[in-house]
Design a protein that fits this description.
By secondary structure, the chain is mainly alpha-helical. It is about 70% helix and about 0% strand. Strands 1-2 form a two-stranded antiparallel sheet. The radius of gyration is 23 Å and the shape is globular.
Length: about 425
């Protein structure tokens, strides 16, 4: 018993840290070649070792919680080495690196599922991670207002791809992420499920959580905020049972608070900048020039590659190399497809259907068969993730791997309850018929 308790304590600590460090995409433990190995990945592997030790050398939950669509997706990704060797044998290294990277993210999913009984520690870790991002964002804004740029690249020189911020541009909150859009995408998928957890544990912390996430979302200036707002509005409608009166009152109360805040603080430079950042981010989704024009061209180039490999794709993690080989990279400053969905279709062809099916089917199933309010939160968040996956280059990272793990736990627990209820009803019907 004492040894079991010790293992549980170690799991809780590791889960807490994994949750905290997954709220960033710049916290790497080391770099192999040009591939950063994130701290969350290393800790997940350590946690898996403890899971094996405490369960006598076997995994006890992963096969139960892993859905068939994800299992089939993994098989086709591994088999995609065949099309790599057929079409572009020189790109086998890209397939290997991509597969290892995917396995590292899968280790996070496995470690969380295997440590399900200590899942609260992961949520608290996520909450602390959100606080850290909020503190960094506020600190960066204070420096920005004083004419100084808080440059993440200076503090994380080993990380590549960290965006540069300039005083000539409007302030953008990015916390511990490479770009403000990355922070917004993470918040968009985790905000509702984590908010539900915090609200259940402590109302005061929940209010603090709302303030922090609202501040960061508004100041990211990312168009992804539009997806979240649509999803959040749907969430409010569903949890209120489509009660028109409650929904209207909630919207009116929110509008009064927001407009009152803006009116009384209209002369405050920080509030005016907040309003400008939110407006820019929301309206940029409708912009057809500038960066959006480049994204459209990138997507068109991706479709051309899909036409060249329409059935089985060009092979896992081969899209960028094929994109460059076709001369698309750098044309009109286009650096990729800007759509993780199009990249996935280009790489594994029709097999990409399994991932799309997972995101849409599981999201809708949780919304339809909601046994508790958390089902609704995860269902909405999964559909938000699907929209981000289609419209941005949101590949699987530590943060989204944690989210997928929580989705699998929520979905399987829901299905287990449904099956238990069916069996119970069948037994009751059998007893009645016998009598």
């Amino acid at each position: 018993m004492e040894e079991k308790r010790r293992y549980l304590n170690i799991r809780s600590i590791l889960l807490f840290i994994i949750g905290s460090v997954s709220c960033s995409n710049i916290l790497s433990a080391f770099v192999v070649g040009s591939t950063p190995i994130m701290i969350a990945n290393v800790l997940a592997i350590v946690l898996l070792i403890f899971c094996i030790m405490s369960s006598h050398g076997r995994f006890v939950r992963i096969l139960h919680y892993l859905t068939k669509d994800l299992l089939y997706l993994g098989i086709f990704i591994l088999l995609s080495i065949i099309q790599v060797l057929l079409f572009n044998p020189g790109n086998a290294y890209q397939w290997l690196v991509g597969t290892i990277s995917l396995l590292l993210q899968f280790s996070i999913i496995m470690s969380i599922i295997e440590s399900k009984q200590e899942i609260n520690a992961l949520y608290w870790g996520l909450f602390i991670g959100v606080i850290a991002n909020f503190i960094i964002s506020v600190y960066a804004m204070i420096l920005y207002n004083s004419g100084v740029i808080f440059d993440l690249a200076k503090y994380f020189p080993a990380e590549s791809g960290i965006g540069t911020m300039y005083l000539s541009n409007s302030f953008r909150a990015r916390g511990l992420f490479k770009e403000q859009g990355h922070l917004m995408r993470f918040l968009a998928i985790i905000a509702i499920p984590l908010g539900q957890f915090v609200k259940e544990k402590n109302k005061i912390l929940f209010v603090l959580y709302i303030v922090m996430t609202t501040f960061m979302m508004a100041f990211t200036g990312s168009s992804s905020v539009a997806y979240f707002l649509v999803g959040f509005f749907a969430y409010i409608m569903i949890i209120n049972g489509k009660n028109a009166t409650k929904i209207i009152l909630a919207i009116l109360a929110g509008m009064v608070i927001v407009f009152g805040f803006l009116f009384f603080g209209r002369n405050n430079p920080t509030i005016s900048k907040l309003l400008a950042a939110f407006q820019d981010g929301f309206l940029s989704i409708f912009d057809v020039s500038g960066a959006n024009l480049g994204r459209v061209k990138g997507m068109k180039f991706a479709i051309e590659i899909i036409k060249n490999y329409p059935i089985i794709g060009c092979g896992w993690n081969n899209f960028t190399k094929v994109f460059m080989d076709n001369g698309y990279y750098g044309v009109d400053y286009v650096m990729g497809s800007y759509s993780a969905a199009l990249s996935l279709i280009a790489e594994i062809g029709l097999a990409s259907f399994f991932y799309f099916y997972f995101l849409i089917n599981k999201g809708l199933r949780m919304l339809k068969n909601r046994a508790k309010i958390s089902n609704i939160g995860f269902g909405i968040s999964l559909l938000i993730y699907f929209l981000l996956f289609c419209s941005t280059d949101y590949v699987i990272d530590a943060g989204s791997a944690v989210f997928i793990a929580l989705v699998l736990i929520e979905y399987r627990d829901l299905r287990d309850k449904e099956v238990a209820n069916m069996v119970k009803n069948q037994n009751v019907n059998t007893e009645v018929s016998v009598q």
